[in-house]
Amino acid sequence: MEANFTHHQSAHCENGVASNLLKHNGLTISEPMVFGIGSGLFFVYLPFIKVNYAPAISYRPMPGQIFTKLAKRLGLKIKRQKFSSVSNANKALDENLKKNIPTGLQVGVYNLSYFPEEYRFHFNAHNLIVYGKTVTNYLISDPVMENVTTLSHAELNKVRFAKGAFAPRGQMYYPIHIPKEVDFKSAIIKGINNTCRDMLAPVPIIGVRGIKYVAKQIRKWPIKYGTKKTNHYLAQMVRMQEEIGTGGGGFRFIYAAFLQEASVILENENLQELSLEMTAIGDLWRDFAVNASRVFKNRSIREDEYNIIADELFAIANKEEEFFKKLKKAIN
Question: Which parts of the chain have pLDDT scores under 70?
Answer without folding.
Answer: 244-247, 300-303
